[in-house]
Amino acid sequence: MKLDELDNLKKQALKEILASKDGKSLENLRVKFLGRKGGELTKILRTLKDLPIVEKRKIGPAANALREELEQAFKQKLKELLTSNPQLPTNLDITMPGKKIAVGHLHPLTLVENEIREIFKALNFSVVEGPEAETEHYNFDALNIPKDHPARDMWDTFWLKQETRDKKQETSKKNNTPHVADRLLLRTHTSPVQVRYMETHQPPFQIIVPGRVFRYEATDASHEINFYQVEGLMVGKDITLANFKYVIQEFFSRLFKKTVAIRLRPSYFPFVEPGLEVDVQCVKCGGKGCNVCKESGWLEVMGAGMVHPNVFEAAHYNPRDLQGFAFGLGLERIAMIKYNIPDIRLFYSGDLRFIKQF
Ligand code: DAH
């Protein structure tokens, strides 16, 4: 009698398990048959104690075996449901808010550099790079900055100690033999790449040179000991300041996404003649005067000029055949204007509250 009951229970349970369509209904079935309070099989097991001992000995093991069989059947069915529909685990609550995945992002200086690269590439400039550890020759001499000229003080320099080179120079000094090797330094600007490029290429060409530079000086809100520049150089038979004006006006208008006026002021850099300082009309107030442009209406953004004949000569060009313009801008300064950043030191602070805003 009891055995029949067990048998019927088994048939019914297996049938329903097999037919169940999802995790929730399967769990309901498990409670219905095996639940500790009021489960069908549990009910049968509870009545065992009232049976005669012979019956107990028969029914007991059979009931336990059935429990195991059903547990196995539930496990098996759950596995099937999960593999056939893996996106829907049994306890999935599709109304729960999702987890936001933190995606990495680029540093503001990288963003601005990338943008500058793209603008110049669209204007048919090539992008080239040069070494950060540079020789005295390329950083100064070839740029028409002679050894003892006061103009050299415009660039406070980190000199690199080079045991063997320095020793050789000592001995060559003592023995009065000619100067053997160039001293090494951390480049103070990207201008040396002008000469390096001209030594290995023939005009006409136009290049920009983004890169890291170093200055041995006190830091403040607008000075860092390491920062980034973008150098520009365009050389050909008849390149003039008019070409420079067009390129640079176009560049700044694309960078600031509106037509901006520019202004050229005479200035001095040893490697250009004439030398210029370039201002753009303040992008914040449009020239009326505000805190960004210190009420002047203009922002100083780059040094520039027409390549000095001595620089062409250092690159083994004939200055009579060629003309060119060059410019150099500070990447941080541009980023500070573009994103309204008040202090250059923020770029290198590693402060996530700053970095995460870009
Ligand atoms: N190299 C200069 C500096 O670091 C910037 C500069 C000025 C670059 C005039 C040029 C230029 O190419 O023509 O201060």
TrEMBL record:
Binds 2 magnesium ions per tetramer. Its EC number is 6.1.1.20. Its cofactor is Mg(2+). HAMAP family: Phe_tRNA_synth_alpha1 (MF_00281). It comes from the Bacteria. Belongs to the class-II aminoacyl-tRNA synthetase family. Phe-tRNA synthetase alpha subunit type 1 subfamily. It catalyses: tRNA(Phe) + L-phenylalanine + ATP = L-phenylalanyl-tRNA(Phe) + AMP + diphosphate + H(+). Pfam families: Phe_tRNA-synt_N, tRNA-synt_2d. It is found in: Cytoplasm. Tetramer of two alpha and two beta subunits. Residues 112-357 form the Aminoacyl-transfer RNA synthetases class-II family profile domain. GO terms for cellular component: cytoplasm. This is Phenylalanine--tRNA ligase alpha subunit. Mg(2+) binds at residue 273. One of its GO terms (molecular function) is tRNA binding. One of its GO terms (biological process) is phenylalanyl-tRNA aminoacylation. Keywords: Aminoacyl-tRNA synthetase, ATP-binding, Cytoplasm, Ligase, Magnesium, Metal-binding, Nucleotide-binding, Protein biosynthesis. Its main location: cytoplasm. SUPFAM superfamilies: Class II aaRS and biotin synthetases, tRNA-binding arm.
